[in-house]
Amino acid sequence: MASNLDDEIDDLQARITSLKKQLHIHTSTLLTAPSTRQLLTQPDNPPTTTLTLPRSKDTPPKTQIQPLLAQSALQEAHAQQCLYRACATLTTFRARDPDPRAVDGGAILGVRIEVLSRARFLRPYYVLLNRPFPGPGSRHLRVHRHTLPACIPLAGLAGRYLPAPTPVKGGGGDGEGKKRQQQQDLGRFARALRREVVRYHHRLGVVADLRKAAGIEGRRGAEGEGEEPGRLVDITPADAEAKQLTIEWADGRTGRLVMGDDGEIVKLVVLGENGRDREAGRDLLGGAVRVEDVVKRLATLG
Amino acid sequence: MARISVPTTARLPSSLRVDPTNPAATKILGRLSRASLLSVALDWLDDNNLPLALPYLREDEDEDDDDDDETDDFHPPARSPEALREIYTSLQARKGSKREVLDRITEGDWRHGLTLYQLAMADLQYLHDHPTSQQWSAYRIAPLKPPHDPDGEAAPEVDKQSLTIPRFHPSTFLRTLQSHVLPDVKAHYNFDAHRSLPLLILRIFVLDSPYNTNHALQPTGTTTSFDASRTVYIAFPDASPHLFISKPTTTTTLSSSGGRASGGGGESKSLRNLLVEGIPKALSRPLQRERFTLQSTSLVTRNLAELVERRGGGRTNSAGGGWSVYADETKGKKETPLDLVVPGPPLSLPDHGEGGGKRAAAVPVSDAERREERAVKRARLVARARFGGTGLVGDGKGVERVDVVVEDAFPDVVAEDGDGDDEEGVVGRAGRAGRKSRVDGSLGRDAEDEDEDAQEAAAQGWRPFVRLTFHGSHVFAGIRQLVENGIIDGERMPGWMTGEEGVTIGAVRNGRIRGHKGSGL
């Protein structure tokens, strides 16, 4: 009985949250609609002309319109931000470091990288930069925090495009002390970073496509019946960057496919019982140059 | 047993049998619980493992004349692995003592010896049962610049601009490790995937013997070889250029004398150093111009989940504490740009429901009460802002010890010779919103020159030696609770107390841990 009641309460709670969510969505849709905006801004003009219909009952008082207008403005700003985020996929924002002893007053520049994978926006990746350097290089940025996975060479990219300022030594210690400060290039850094992230996700996507084309996901359950030896049983990424794939056949052959940054096939080695099995490799590739071609080929074969 | 034992550089084969009465074997098995023992035994009898863990079975030929022999055998050998599997499954269903199972294994079914493979499986079972039994240190695998001088005299430096992510292939790694790095050490290696975490665990069982046959395991004379044997675990997190090395533990019994124990400690330390030096060499591929080194990342903990969180393949590596809101991938926080609903301020969302409920329950009566309630609420909010989704008591990602050395100058001295408008505070008494005073700035610049500013410390005022050690089951959850209860002022608490840097050993300079500019890269 008690559990019944609990279930009921849980159900109702779930309904409340879903209804609230719907309410939010409807609110924002209504607020962004141009007609609503028009309605909201209209009452400002009519009072100047006294020739309005006497609808004092209908027109909401100013105290109600003001927050609505504010909300509407907020909504519009958000919509614009979303538009930029969706189209440019590389946006910046400002944040504040909550640490009271943070450098530069806790000012943080955030870079947001959107990733579109399988027709869906993933949670964006963030890189948060601050300006910790004193003296002449004080405008130089440095990566403070980030949410990129470890397989993105962020440190290397930061070393290339956001080098730390070379400290200016006092006196004539080294002749090259006047060496030009290395310029930082946030734009190139962000673009290169995004490129790496997108490549990585494309590689992951292509692995999933390969698996699907080879029918690995589907046939898992129906194992055992009719083991044709040429069937692929497993394709998995073998390294952090998903550049190398392990391929396993039903008859025990294993292969390693190495792809380049952009999904071009660099090398494929298949090992059978008696050493290298070149024929199987040729069978799998069929003259393909890119991994996507292999996907297509497998899809037509299967 | 082989007739002749020749010292070689090969590793110990998995099929090598250890006498079940050997102290190391009894210790490894003895510390498992009954349930674990049974599940391990069933794992041994699994078809995949059976070739390396063959039990003592009754042979078919002497079936007839053997009957009377077997009657006085307390643990008659089974006829087939299937029968044995049934026996152990029935034992699993029944209640009984651990001793019963242990005896059955050592005196019955594996009386002819347990293979090293079996011991490795049992040891890993113990690791799964007691996840905090090992202390791990995290290391980063960093790429090195190709050496430019042909003599190889100069120490290679870390390539800060390299884009290579170290790749790791278990069997190649093992082969190189054994042949190039530990040729003098006889060791048994065993790989196993962690059951719940994305980790690959390598168990290295080191024997102090030049032989790789049964000779290595003979308790010749005094128990020399096994006594000095050590077990080291190396964990490789999936998709992350880090690795975790456990502190070597001896398998010697505790009864060993004090002097020997200390000697063993030094030995195990040198073994660890050997590994730390050797692992990057085993990972490197000089022919492909890929060389790596290991860098300590100042994170030592017993908690593997925390290690995977802070050094693993996910998003949370460099976004701890309050920054974890950026890495949070849980439901409703996807932040897709297609969602047109304006998000509220990040901290307000969960508060609405809570606050509403509370207000209905108890309406504060007096002013003081209201103020108090507001303070409590504010403290909670601040805690959530500073810690985000981390540092929760039940999240199982606690570090148990944090050591911090505070190297800041004593605040009064700074206030005297600096311009007095900025109060520079020490821990817990930090100045306003991180404005740096001039003294602080110049200090930072000088320190930048030196990078390791030992002399600098002496030059600048009085720096008391302050060393803080936090100790507990989940240090940062404890600090969070203190903040939530208003004992620590969350707004003025320095950032390193939230654990956002992900280090357990560190030096605080200018109110920030590790380096002078906060962390980052």
Automatic annotation (TrEMBL), chain A:
<keyword id="KW-0137">Centromere</keyword>
<keyword id="KW-0539">Nucleus</keyword>
<feature type="compositionally biased region" description="Low complexity">
    <location>
        <begin position="39"/>
        <end position="54"/>
    </location>
</feature>
<comment type="similarity">
    <text>Belongs to the CENP-O/MCM21 family.</text>
</comment>
<dbReference type="GO" id="GO:0005634">
    <property type="term" value="C:nucleus"/>
</dbReference>
<feature type="region of interest" description="Disordered">
    <location>
        <begin position="163"/>
        <end position="185"/>
    </location>
</feature>
<dbReference type="GO" id="GO:0031511">
    <property type="term" value="C:Mis6-Sim4 complex"/>
</dbReference>
<feature type="region of interest" description="Disordered">
    <location>
        <begin position="38"/>
        <end position="62"/>
    </location>
</feature>
<protein>
    <submittedName>
        <fullName>Cenp-O kinetochore centromere component-domain-containing protein</fullName>
    </submittedName>
</protein>
<dbReference type="InterPro" id="IPR018464">
    <property type="entry name" value="CENP-O"/>
</dbReference>
<keyword id="KW-0158">Chromosome</keyword>
<dbReference type="Pfam" id="PF09496">
    <property type="entry name" value="CENP-O"/>
</dbReference>
TrEMBL record, chain B:
<feature type="compositionally biased region" description="Low complexity">
    <location>
        <begin position="249"/>
        <end position="259"/>
    </location>
</feature>
<feature type="region of interest" description="Disordered">
    <location>
        <begin position="342"/>
        <end position="367"/>
    </location>
</feature>
<feature type="compositionally biased region" description="Acidic residues">
    <location>
        <begin position="60"/>
        <end position="72"/>
    </location>
</feature>
<dbReference type="GO" id="GO:0034080">
    <property type="term" value="P:CENP-A containing chromatin assembly"/>
</dbReference>
<feature type="region of interest" description="Disordered">
    <location>
        <begin position="414"/>
        <end position="455"/>
    </location>
</feature>
<dbReference type="InterPro" id="IPR007902">
    <property type="entry name" value="Chl4/mis15/CENP-N"/>
</dbReference>
<feature type="region of interest" description="Disordered">
    <location>
        <begin position="247"/>
        <end position="269"/>
    </location>
</feature>
<dbReference type="GO" id="GO:0007059">
    <property type="term" value="P:chromosome segregation"/>
</dbReference>
<feature type="compositionally biased region" description="Basic and acidic residues">
    <location>
        <begin position="437"/>
        <end position="446"/>
    </location>
</feature>
<feature type="compositionally biased region" description="Acidic residues">
    <location>
        <begin position="414"/>
        <end position="425"/>
    </location>
</feature>
<protein>
    <submittedName>
        <fullName>Centromere protein Chl4/mis15/CENP-N</fullName>
    </submittedName>
</protein>
<dbReference type="Pfam" id="PF05238">
    <property type="entry name" value="CENP-N"/>
</dbReference>
<feature type="region of interest" description="Disordered">
    <location>
        <begin position="60"/>
        <end position="81"/>
    </location>
</feature>
